[in-house]
């Protein structure tokens, strides 16, 4: 989990190579080739009219959190094992897509939540196997490289 958090921190500090691919009034999505795997990294950025703590309540990776209520791509989120107050092993499921042509997915990740001195809040995760969470029938087991969210305070 700490390695995933550090990798995200390094992505955040390195502004080079990002190319815009989608944009609305609220969100800009950019991509760049990954140096860790054969594929691309994607970054979504937006400014929300709320305090960092209020925004964090909507995105933080916790069981019973608000993410499953607003994010149509997250069907369920459960904690398999709490390692500490800030680190846990979690299972996230996604619904089927494209009129059920794409099967539901499940992801098992080790997740860390951090708060920095400047008020930035971060969640970071990466794939892990756990004996209490073998692959489930009717789900395709997904694999996450280091991924997560930053909630960064901005003036005003």
Q: How would you explain this protein's 3D organization?
A:
- There is one protein chain.
- This protein is of the alpha+beta class and 156 residues long.
- It has a single domain (1-151), classed as Alpha-D-Glucose-1,6-Bisphosphate, Chain A, domain 4 (2-Layer Sandwich), CATH 3.30.530.
- Helices cover 15% and strands 37% of the residues.
- It is built from 3 helices and 9 strands, in the order αβββααββββββ.
- It has helices at residues 2-13, 52-59, 67-70; strands spanning 19-23, 28-33, 40-45, 76-82, 87-94, 105-115, 121-127, 140-141, 147-151.
- Strands 4, 5, 6, 7, 8 and 9 form a 6-stranded mixed β-sheet that branches. A 3-stranded antiparallel β-sheet has the order 1-2-3, with no helix packed on it.
- Strand 4 and strand 5 (87-94) form a beta hairpin.
- The longest helix has 12 residues, at 2-13.
- The two termini are 32 Å apart.
């Amino acid at each position: 989990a700490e390695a995933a958090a550090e990798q995200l921190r390094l992505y955040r500090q390195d502004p080079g190579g990002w190319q815009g691919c989608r944009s609305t009034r609220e969100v800009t999505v950019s991509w760049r080739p990954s140096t860790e795997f054969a594929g691309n990294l994607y970054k979504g950025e937006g400014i929300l009219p709320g305090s960092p703590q209020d925004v964090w309540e909507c995105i933080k990776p916790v069981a019973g959190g608000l993410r499953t209520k607003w994010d149509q791509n997250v069907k369920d989120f459960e904690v398999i094992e709490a390692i500490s107050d800030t680190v846990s092993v979690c299972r996230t499921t996604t619904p089927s897509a494209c009129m059920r042509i794409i099967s539901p997915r499940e992801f098992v990740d080790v997740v860390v939540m951090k708060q920095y001195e400047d008020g930035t809040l971060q969640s970071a995760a990466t794939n892990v196997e756990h004996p209490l969470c073998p692959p489930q029938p009717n789900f395709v087991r997904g694999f996450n490289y280091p991924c997560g969210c930053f909630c960064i305070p901005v003036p005003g």
